[in-house]
Amino acid sequence: MTLFIIFLCIGLLVLLITWGKLNPFIAFLIVSIVAGITTGIPLSSIGKSLQKGVGDMLGSLVIVIALGAMLGKIVAESGAAQKIASVMMKIFGEKYIQWGLVCTGFIIGIPLFYNVGFVLMIPLIFSVVNQYKLPAVYIGLPMLASLSVAHGFLPPHPSPAALVAQFNADMGLTLVYGIIIAIPTIVIAGPIFSLTLKNIPSKPLETFQSKTLPKEQLPSTLNSFLTSLLPVILLASTTLLATFWKDNESLKSFGVFVADPSIVMLISVLVATFTLGIKMGTSMKTIMSIYTEAVKDVAMIVLIIGGAGALKQILMDGGVSNEIAVILKTLPLDPLILGWLVAAIIRVCLGSATVAGLTTAGIMAPLVAQSGVNPNLMVLSIGVGSLMFSHVNDPGFWLFKEYFNLSIKNTIKSWSMMESIVAVVGLVGVLILDAVI
């Protein structure tokens, strides 16, 4: 009965989103109510469970997601991302253009949401393609692989950040582990895999090539890099320094305060407001309007995360999660592999990496608590699984197809296979890291 309920929930979620074209947030609420009824939760208590689930999930995430969106928007609007891209291209030169794009995509991908980074980097990719007369997919896919990896692996992106909160993981350690796994994953799924894609015909549409800012209007190189990477610098440094602070209560308390993701993002946004805003001659009114638009861009992501929290709470209150954990524990699979597999299946069915990650988190939470598996690695395992085989039900699939003007067949051969390689290689990286630590 327990497995039937979970399959019913996932199946209904798939149908509502794909066939019914329903908004994922609304779909989550409907499925949560159905799950509550089938698990025997009193009707009078279902509403309370929904509210608790949404509140608990968003309570620790709204600040991080909203501030992360603001930082990404100011990095894009100020020209900092464009500056980083131009500097990286100068460093790597024509011979190693691909590697320059990969590094640029990864650096840009850390503070920016995937869709923002995609649209922002497309003009750079197309300008390189036109300037050096190179195959578009061969040049562009490695950069997009690095953007995708940053989106699926690294906090403060919504899904990894939500998983960190769900499993009580350490965001700094998760980030460090994520970067360690991300580097070989990007290399294999990007430059190496793209060697097989040189003959794919692609004529990027001119209408998708957006304008770039004049060089004199761009922030300095140091300003662009430091401001964009400040969240990473703060998280990584406080995590590493924590070992030296453990005997000093005052420094330890300060370190814990600064390392809190909400504080990290607040500091980063305040710094960016000055370095990429006021210092560049932008009025405070304009900066605040940029931040307002940024929050609008992620509003639906926040609601979807809240909806996933509601389903998680219903499954917990109905006792389903604990029963599933007991069943899953009897399977001859490592919990990290199991988390990856569940996320991959949901991803293929639903198309959304965020929904796949968050839904899997609700299923795996009791097992993580009982098995003693490293929660930081579970975050990464589910994160990489949630990127598995993007196809026609994923907006990212169509984004790539339309911008590069490809057929569906060639989009599957390039984009879908790249995402699958990311998922598989990422899992191998997680398992190797698990064996080492």
From TrEMBL:
It is found in: Cell membrane. It comes from the Bacteria. Pfam families: GntP_permease. The keyword Secreted does not apply. It is a multi-pass membrane protein. InterPro entries: Glcn_transporter. Its main location: membrane. Keywords: Cell membrane, Membrane, Transmembrane, Transmembrane helix, Transport. The chain crosses the membrane at residues 26-46, 58-76, 96-129, 136-154, 174-197, 218-242, 254-278, 298-316, 336-361, 373-392, 412-433. One of its GO terms (molecular function) is gluconate transmembrane transporter activity. GO terms for cellular component: plasma membrane. Belongs to the GntP permease family. This is Gnt-I system high-affinity gluconate transporter. It comes from Arcicella rosea.
